[in-house]
Design goal:
Layout: E1 10-21, E2 31-43, E3 48-52, H1 59-66, E4 74-79, E5 82-83, H2 89-95, E6 99-102, H3 106-109, H4 116-127, H5 132-145, H6 162-174, E7 180-184, H7 192-209, E8 212-216, H8 220-226, E9 229-234, E10 237-243, H9 244-249, H10 254-261, E11 311-315, E12 318-321
Parallel strand pairs: 3-8, 3-9, 6-7, 7-8
Antiparallel strand pairs: 1-2, 1-4, 4-5, 9-10, 10-12, 11-12
Helix pairs in contact: 4-5, 4-6, 5-6, 6-7
């Protein structure tokens, strides 16, 4: 069954988020950091949806919006057929039981005063309806799932390595069997030697429990390996979006091609041509009036600085927001 034949688990319609900036002097005009601007996405059940882009492009803000942790200024977000942006606090709390997050830094995301049992069983205590014996059994089973043992339940985070701490974080996120899991750069703070172990664990757990992942990463090689579909963001806007294999095989946006060129290559016999981007990333407080990538783009056209390019279809399940492909826009 293709993504077009399924109902999305999570759908975003023209979502925008801006944060107010502190004034430098009393009568200064109010300014806003435009973190996410007019983003529309669909994430389907059981898939891994990658989010890539430079620091400050709005990846984490986008993820927080999908979890209901960040209010949107405009647009709508639907989760499992229900509109998150229209829910009351009580309804949102109930919906969040189907959502969890794996944090980037396992060292700071685990309370050092809590034992492993306390850390992983906390969601069960908050949900309620479990006896102490049931929680011990559930936590022990989950520890085995992530490659640890029941004997680790009464130990503390300081007794574990970085990779083991991240396994504890994964166990805590999965203890309520969520439908949707945000992986906020889950391997970036770990040694390279354990990257593959954690990624393989996440992929195995996804297949077993049919979880939907939103996978945030700076590492394009990792995104290509684990993701089914992906979005490339720049300064809060969608640059390219769709099937990850099609994006990597045929990058349609100049920014995507620049990101591809930055991937570390160990093949010294066949060096790739790398295009260096000129200039600096514009301020999100005052982005360019046209395309956000205008001014740094090696293929800039006069129209790029006048208006924002539409998101057009390049091929099936592959879209790009660039005037180079404006002729593909539907009438």
């Amino acid at each position: 069954m293709t993504s077009n034949e399924r109902e999305p688990l999570l759908k975003m319609e023209h979502v925008s988020v801006a944060f107010p900036v502190k004034k430098d002097f009393p009568f200064q005009k109010k300014r806003y950091v435009k973190a996410v601007t007019d983003v529309s996405l669909e994430i389907y059940p059981g898939e891994t949806f990658g989010v890539v882009g430079e620091s400050g492009c709005g990846k984490s803000t986008l993820a927080n919006c999908t979890l209901g942790m960040q209010r949107v200024d405009s647009g709508k977000i639907f989760f499992d057929g229900q509109e998150l942006t229209a829910m009351t606090s009580r309804q949102l709390k109930e919906a969040r039981r189907s959502m969890q997050v794996i944090f980037q830094d396992p060292f700071s995301s685990l309370n050092p005063r809590f034992s492993v049992f306390d850390l992983i069983s906390e969601p069960l205590r908050i949900k309620g309806g479990y006896t102490y014996a049931e929680m011990r059994k559930t936590v022990g089973d989950m520890l085995k799932e992530v490659g640890l043992s029941e004997g680790d339940m009464d130990r503390f985070p300081s007794d574990f390595s970085g990779g083991q701490k991240q396994r504890i974080g994964i166990a805590r996120a999965l203890i309520l069997k969520p439908k949707y899991l945000v992986c906020d750069e889950p391997v970036s703070a770990l040694d390279v030697s354990v990257h593959a172990q954690i990624l393989n664990l996440l992929m195995d757990l996804q297949e077993k429990y049919h979880i939907t992942y939103l996978f945030i990463s700076h590492n394009l090689a990792v995104v290509k390996r684990v993701s089914d579909r992906a979005v490339v963001m720049y300064l809060g806007k969608v640059m390219e979006y769709g099937n990850v294999q099609k994006i990597f095989k045929n990058p349609a946006h100049p920014y995507t091609r620049a990101l591809m060129g930055s991937i570390f290559d160990v093949d010294i016999d066949c060096p790739r041509e790398r295009k260096r981007l000129q200039g600096e990333v514009p301020s999100p407080i005052n982005p360019p009036p046209g395309c956000r990538f205008c001014g740094r783009c090696p293929e800039e056209q006069p129209c790029c600085s006048l208006s924002e390019p539409p998101l057009v279809k390049i091929e099936e399940d592959h879209y790009a927001a660039c005037f180079l492909h404006a002729d593909r826009a539907e009438e």
